[in-house]
Specification:
274 residues, alpha/beta, globular, single chain, 24% strand
């Protein structure tokens, strides 16, 4: 079996990425024959190449919301993975304004590149789909007035939750219960710096409530970088007792090391299979 999490970029916003402190581009989850690219922000293609990720192997793209550092490279990624539509393949899963647009907002997905994909799908909170042997469920998130979702991925070997950009809510905690690996976007060292996102304090509360086997912080803003992410995750580990890692650009993690029940199946009856 093959499984990995590849962090293409770990920076948040123009104050970090625009000034070259960190890159962006989201992360890639590889499980057996599946390769999922989550939140392909700026530099997704370049960072994929630098990290040894072949975008032609991508069969799923997942986008949490329409802010540029989560979806800027969506269309060029689709173009690259399909060779400009010659090899029509893959599925895009995301929040409505990204995939279809709304009355007020145009879709981020362009009509031309939409035709390069096998399928596009909008997920609302707590809706689920299946891609091969993996169940994907949309998380309930709250990111100011921007519509957004997160994702959980339930594989035969482990489960992984990704918060996307969100404040801490009871619904988020409920949706993440039982997750083995928890990836959190934590741009702010405190609530004032985090604004409509998770802070370090929120991360401690979320980890304490969810009790994952591994917690990973990413999507760092200036306040977390200035406070040293390594110091922050050491303090989180002390407070929660859960192994906690600060992601780095290009970091690769083997999620099989944090699985609980080998060969488990979590697909729920009645979900949509792609």
């Amino acid at each position: 079996m093959k499984s990995s999490i590849v962090f293409l970029g770990t920076g948040q916003g123009s104050q970090v990425v625009g000034r070259g402190r960190l890159s962006s581009g989201g992360f890639v989850l590889q499980v057996d024959e599946n390769q999922f690219h989550i939140d392909p922000g700026p530099n997704a293609l370049m960072q994929s190449a630098l990290c040894g990720v072949n975008v032609r192997g991508t069969n799923g793209i997942f986008v949490t919301h329409r802010h540029l550092h989560h979806c800027n490279d969506l269309n060029v990624l689709i173009d690259a993975m399909t060779v400009h539509g010659v090899d029509k393949q893959g599925v895009l899963v995301g929040e409505q304004s990204v995939v279809q647009g709304t009355e007020e907002l145009p879709a981020i997905l362009q009509p031309r590149t939409k035709n390069f994909l096998e399928k596009t799908l909008v997920l609302n909170p707590r809706q689920r789909i299946g891609i091969n042997a993996i169940e994907i469920v949309a998380l309930t998130t709250q990111h100011g007035d921007t519509p957004s979702i997160g994702f959980t991925f339930h594989t035969p070997y482990f489960s992984l939750g990704y918060t996307g950009d969100t404040s801490l809510t009871d619904d988020l905690i409920k949706d993440l219960k039982g997750i083995h690996i928890l990836i959190m976007n934590v741009p702010g060292v405190n609530k004032q710096a985090a604004q409509d996102n998770l802070s370090i304090e929120d991360a401690i509360d979320l980890i304490t409530a969810v009790e994952p086997r591994l917690a990973i912080l990413t999507h760092f803003g200036n306040s977390v970088l200035d406070a040293d992410p390594l110091h922050q995750v050491r303090e989180i580990h002390k407070a929660t007792g859960v192994q906690t890692i600060a992601a780095r650009d290009g970091m690769v993690i083997n999620p099989l090391s944090y699985s609980v029940d080998k060969g488990q199946r979590t697909l729920i009856e009645g979900m949509q299979q792609l």
